[in-house]
## 1
Amino acid sequence: MNPSPATLKDVAAAAGVSVSTASRALAGNPVITEQTSERVRQCAEELNYRPNAQARALRSSRTHVIGVTIPSLVNPFFATMAQVIQQEATARGLSTIISSTAEDPGQLNASLDVLATQRVDGILAVPYNGSEASFERLRKARIPVVLLDRELPATGLSTVASDPRPGMDAAVAHLLANGHRHIGYLSGPMTTSTGVSRLAAFQAACERHGVEKREIYRGGYERADGHAGTLTLLDRGVEAIIAGDTMMSVGALEACHARKVIIGRDLAFIGYDDNVTLRLQASPVSVIDQDVATLGRTGLRLLVDLMSGASPPTTVTTPTTLIIRPSSDFIRPADEVRT
């Protein structure tokens, strides 16, 4: 009588792991350590284990589910991005798993690992510097990935991001044309590509247009950073402030209200990313706009192409534009200086 063929349960028992861990190890899931994977593979070979053909076909089939990781669902920019992606995905017959990572690289890495175990067909992710290793594991596992908003050049992954230079240059030129010559900038963190590139764009615009008096507050992409930074810049006597992201824009408004500084009269203010909060101010806020809907739709289209085996461009860059509103569109008298 021939012995029964080895099962996955037999392999798991021999390797001292659970059945699910053995299955993931044999499938090359990056969540499983290389040491454990090697032990499972060795046991499978010794037991002459052969996966069931039907089970193997099931594992290789598509789930029609994609993962989306964003830094925050409180931030209107990323909430809109998630909504656009979900709507576009639904129209294409795809379901989405959305994870908010709280601007924390550790949470991003954990979310990516979980999405990998859920056998998603692909992932759209807003990355952080320092998360390269997690994306490398996804690449080795052949899970299609498209980065959104922020770049990680070392990964070589397809990326959709905006170019801050056109909008920032137009913003600085607009302020100068209206007589606002002492300009402050609320900068995002240097741990993100957007924080670095937007600060560089502001500095380059000031150099190009001859801004002699400029102030920079280096903070983070949080409302509290915008609030603290605005108070600091006001104390330095700036006549105008440009915010480097949505949540800092909201924090800046709160700081001005607290100080009883009237935007559009006492201070020229330009926010970042268009949203209803900025449009509904007593003095509607000018913004440097990235067109988040286009970013989200473009990212999803690239991911779908990747999942179908196509090779999309490594990087797609969309321009930023300046939308002028009353918060900055007023003339400052030549002899008026803020104190």
## 2
Amino acid sequence: MHVVVITKHGGPDVLRVEDRADPSTGAGEVRIGVAAAGVNFADMMARMGLYPDAPKPPCVVGYEVAGTVLELGSGVQGLEHGQRVVAGTQFDGYAEQVVVPAGDVMALPDHLTFEQGAALPVNYATAWAGLIGYGNLQPGERVLLHAAAGGVGIAATQIAKHREAEVYGTASPSKHEAIRAQGVDHPIDYRSAGWERELPPFDLIMDAIGGPSFRTSYDLLRPGGRLVAFGASSLVSGQRRNVLTAARTVLRMPRFNLIRQMSQSKAVIGLNMLSLWKDRETLEPWITPLRGLMDERVLEPVVAGAFPFDRAGEAHTMLQERRNVGKVVLTP
């Protein structure tokens, strides 16, 4: 089978298509023929050498796929050969075939394409965990979503609107119409100096920017507000690792004072889906709640671009340059 390999740390040119043996299926596992694989910011950071959880190169990354069931291991129930499915993968998703535990697989509704399905396991599980599972979003609350035009941003918008929240979202002005169409009530131009000054206090903020953005987000919380920090995209500058930029960003991260937090009644929640996934040994607690929302057509993933494996570098570049509105995927 063909896979996309990070041959070494570096720019998009280090991504190569190589041949690997087909994976074997064990008890309780499912082998899937991949039709689309999701591209996430973590994949790009892994390529640059900025993601400590990633395997060392040469390696195959990728957290989520959509495709058809090729083989069922012994003991697997509720799935059928040839069924359309989506699945979470702890790396190895950039491949024509993957083998995953059955608990990390769910059926893909007929009204969604494979490309849309590849946006579900990570982006929508992250959005649900941040907003509902840990953020405890309530109807009528006010939410700020950073990078509202990205894969998680659009997922979070759809879930927040379903929860009857008032949604503010940051994006460049060229993307404001697109995020309004997804349900953002108040688009914000984050490139405008002092963009945060006239905003109301928020009940919940989703922030994957990191660096000084965490402090800005924390200051925008009202008493009882929750900041969900789930990424640090500001660590990335250019197509290759820049240690100086990364170090500066880390140094500008706020140091939260628990006594002050207690006095202000504000919460900071760190969210890393891979850590949760490893601890629970399954994505099931976060993908199971999505099933009903998919059937109700509440969740409608937006695909910004689909690239064949041999153009994986272009997919990474689109994401790194923030040109996407929605999910970027690879297709074998």
## 3
Amino acid sequence: FRDYLMKLLAAQKQYDWDHQPIALSATSLRKGDSADAIKAIKERLYVYGDYAANDTTPYYDTAFEAAVKRFQKRYGLTPDGVIGKTMLSELNDSIGKRIKQIRINMERVRWMPKIEDSVYILVNIPEYRLHIFEHKKLVKDIRVIVGTTANSTVIFSGRLKYIVFSPYWNVPSSIVQKELLPAMQRDPNYLARNSMEVYGGTASLPMIRQKPGGSNSLGLVKFLFPNNYNIYLHDTPNRGLFNATNRSFSHGCIRVGEPAWLAQYLLRNNTAWDSTSIHNAMHQTQEKWVTLQATIPVFIGYFTAWVDQDGKLNFRKDIYGHDKKMEAKLFYR
């Protein structure tokens, strides 16, 4: 972080981009195009380290396309090499904003609990990714879906202890009140059509759960790290949502893109489990709880800037507005 911060502080003194926004004369730019805007974009990608050549020609060639894709990947954009409105918006953000973003996230790193376990899981909310580390080395990246702005995923840490195959979904009372009761009034067969049942509560506020199966909102497996927020990792039947670039769709829990792989990884040292037994357990009519032989720390974090395993500086959108709140405390006291 510190090296990148020093580079951007130096660039801020040299370049006055705040008053020179780049505009496109076309809807987008791609390889083979020529435009005056390409000269300015090349300069910025050179300063940011994505473009090796200090080239200010207006031509979009193969080397420039590779630089564009590197930039897009670092910012969580689709790395298709096409320069459009979204990429241009990131390029037009001031160097000063990026400097503040780095400083804010350096502060967040200071707040992280000390990691003493050899294996741990980190979910980075703005990145929409779950990372598994062993001995500080990245083992696997998995796409996740996090809470919406209105139902934001909580930042905290816990220890993953249980895997529940073919789970029931015990619908939170808030969802019962806001969504299910109105739906039941409109359609008396709503519960049956959605494989749901009442298992307690009162007539005015029933306790409702969804039965195990392919249509269950938790999918075929969930991963529990007991906490006060009722947040956990789980599968989902809506697989297509993982293809979205921005994946804040849930009520607060974290949907996992590769749940079967995660289950097999967590049970890798348990000889009673393999890919076949896991698949079978995920397709039962009754839920099955498995206690891990050793708990694994899970950190739910919120980093909009970080240096990855390849030494590249990444940035993401402040999807919950946490950066703005920290900025007010750090820079405007």
